Amino acid sequence: VGVALAALAWTSATTARAHLAAIAAGLACGALAAAWTALPPAPDDVARLVGRDLTAIEGTIVQSDRLGSRAALVVDVARVRTRRRTGHARGLVAMTIAHAARPWPIGTGVRVVGKLRRPRNFLNPGGYDHEGALARRGIHATLFLWDDAHVESVALGSPDRDQLLGRVRVELADRIAARTSEPVRGYLTAVLLGATQSLDRETRTALTRTGLAHVVSVSGFHVAVAAGTCFVLLRWLLLRAGSLALHVDVGALAAVLGLVPVGAYAAIAGGSVPATRSFLTYPLVLAALACGRRPDGLRTLALLAVLLSIRAPDMAADVSFELSFVSVAALFMVAERARRRGAAATSRTWWRRAVATSIRTSLAATIATAPLTAWHFQQISLIAPIANLVTLPLLGPATLLPGLAALPLTALAPATGVASWIADRLLDAAAWAAGLGLAAAVRLAALPGAAVTTPMPSLLELAIAYTALALWWTRAHAGEPRRIGPWRRAAVALVTILGVAGTSFWMWERCCNPTLRVTFLSVGQGDAAVVELPRGGVLVVDGGGFPGDFDPGERVIAPFLRSRKILHVDALALSHPQLDHYGGLAHLAETFAPNEIWWNGARGTGARFARLQAALTAAGTRPRVLRRGTTIRRDDDVEIDVLHPGDPLPGNVNDGSLVLRLRFGTTSVLFTGDIERGAEHELLTGARDGLRSIVLKVPHHGSATSTSAAWLAAVAPRVAVVSSGADNRFGFPAPAVVRRLRASGATVWNTAEHGAVRVVSDGHALSVTAMRPWPGKRFEFPQLLW
């Protein structure tokens, strides 16, 4: 709020006192709003039931997204029933149905029984703040269901508006599904109904590489097309209404009447941040015109930021908020500069002006959002100006105009008849344009150099980048004198010094740091660890994995690697072919070009393992089957001993896991995969002397079938790391295993509780840290310090 009010003052006031007053007012409003949201939930808030026994909730679906068989719903709760209370309740619940057999449109009343949980982040450096994103939408409870067999549709007396919106969305979604196929189906569902999760992964990747990701989220571009079309049509109709034009301003009346259809489109599209921001711009512009003032883009944008930020004080942390406002601000600045120089362009033909304007605005938006896309997606599109020029007319007006024209016909027309036939033809036209545009985007995305992968900048580096952009803009485009003032000279010097210092630090960290750094990542019920070797070199041990479409390699491990400025992985290590260990490795093979993959030679089954094999082949990664007795050396500083398996592989898949012992000076780290007592007994028989390790990755997520007392005595760890999922259905780690670990003198870290656990050693002393610190006291040992 403070930043928004400061921006508003900066564009409307001219004195330093006004700027300071706006900043102070903004900070005060922000503090009050933050204090309000920090208050405990009301007694009837459904968030108070999180983590308790099974809860029956009744409510109305207010948001519905569908991707394949998975349905992501938001339910506005009206009633709850538990063993302790029954009655009215309020609040929103994010409900996920993994295998939904029925459609669940907006406005449907539902009754469901389940265990409410608190939204959780994975707690990894560079990770996405899922908990904060839900909190900004007012969601503080989640519910997961495997299927919808026990979800009941009930009549809760939903408002007519919700019922109408739900009926329109269902009817249009059914028509789109019946007349199109992927990826056109997902794209039309996204831009007409706001269901952005409906787009498949390959198409989304192509749009991101070409800088066209903004066309999927209903934003200013879509609302502008809808508003412009409604204005033209309404004005044309009003001019045909006899003497009406003699008594009223037809243009103003058409603009005001256009609020209704544009608002309906924004509501049908789900009311996202970009859609809300774009729709609110409409009445603000009309208000400015009614007051006889020329609308100012930056002032309007700042006022919208104020309104949205008062509703959610941390709205500035929202990805769509950041990208939307920064890109629109850049467009306003470019448009204002073009307006000032408009006389110079009058000699050009209209089509040359249109092409030049399109390239200029696309370049401005790409440059302005480049630091943010590097931060959130670790990718910057280089082909965006060309891609926007070629495909935006197809994916924009050519798709939106017939698609939006089908909305009222779908809402008001019966299933058969002339109106229904016209609606189908309009959707066919929208699908043809969308298919052509998406095909062009995929072709452009496949071009070499279409996008560059970047490391993830820190907040300081982000501030440096935008300071540099601001200095460049004010120097090149503000029309100021060529003389460089002392304040600007100081700012340039500071930015240069910080940039050089940051670059030097990361070059030393990647190539010269003499310490060993091992990070056990939080990937839910699975294993993943990143080993940063002294003086360069990176090894990833296992990659987590979930059933469904969540890819931990793309969503968890890759962001962590890029936050560490790692763009290449030397080797992947797969302990054994189970999904919770290899599920994320395919993405790492596709994007980090590993030189080798170490594994036990056992092959997995299914499409996910086939994707991993194809990715390794495409990357030219050399497979290396490891067996007991192999030692891998690196620069005489680090040795990796293979302790298990031998030949032949055990029949038990878990007992066939690779067991690797990494040695660096007096520090040793033991990676155990999912071995159970059979493999532990074999290790005690054949490699008892080589088991002793300071750091132990606890076998099989802390299962009771592993970590026997005799084996634990042979390892004698001082630090034990359990990789498990929060509230997992297996009950890992087993309480008996935790007791044995603590009795042996080891401190137990659990990724489900502590997030990512990081071990750093110089070969003698060792430190352990975590995203959520261990609650115990501080201890010191000859070889262990944390």
Structural classification: alpha/beta
Shape: globular
- Total beta-strand segments: 26
Based on CA atoms alone, the radius of gyration comes out at: 29 Å
Mean pLDDT: 82
Biggest beta sheet attributes:
8 strands, mixed
The helix fraction, in percent, is 40-55%
Short descriptors:
786 residues; alpha/beta; eight-stranded mixed β-sheet; seven-stranded mixed β-sheet; 26 strands; 47% helix; 17% strand
Could you characterize what this model shows?
The protein is an alpha/beta fold and 786 residues long. Helix content is 47%, strand content 17%. It has an 8-stranded mixed β-sheet. Strands 1, 2, 3, 4, 5, 6 and 7 form a 7-stranded mixed β-sheet that branches. α25 links the parallel β20 and β21 (719-722). α7 (220-239) crosses α9 (250-257) and α7 runs antiparallel to α10. The chain is globular. The model is unreliable at 775-786 (pLDDT under 50).
Question: What's this model, at a glance?
Answer:
By secondary structure, the chain is of the alpha/beta class.
Q: Which helices and strands, and how do they pair?
A:
Blueprint: H1 2-12, H2 16-38, E1 55-67, E2 70-81, E3 86-88, E4 92-99, E5 109-114, H3 130-136, E6 139-147, E7 152-154, H4 160-179, H5 184-193, H6 201-209, H7 220-239, H8 244-247, H9 250-257, H10 259-268, H11 273-290, H12 297-311, H13 319-340, H14 350-376, E8 379-381, H15 384-395, H16 397-412, H17 418-445, E9 451-453, H18 459-477, H19 486-511, E10 516-520, E11 528-532, E12 538-543, H20 552-563, E13 571-573, H21 579-582, H22 585-592, E14 596-599, H23 607-619, E15 622-625, E16 631-634, E17 638-644, E18 659-664, E19 667-671, H24 677-686, E20 695-697, H25 709-715, E21 719-722, H26 735-743, E22 747-750, H27 751-754, E23 757-761, E24 766-770, E25 780-781, E26 784-785
Parallel strand pairs: 4-6, 12-13, 13-14, 14-15, 19-20, 20-21, 21-22
Antiparallel strand pairs: 1-2, 1-5, 2-3, 2-4, 5-7, 8-9, 10-11, 10-23, 11-12, 16-17, 17-18, 18-19, 23-24, 25-26
Helix pairs in contact: 1-2, 1-12, 2-12, 4-5, 4-16, 5-17, 6-17, 7-9, 7-10, 7-11, 7-16, 10-11, 11-12, 12-13, 13-14, 14-15, 14-18, 15-16, 15-17, 16-17, 18-19, 20-22, 22-23
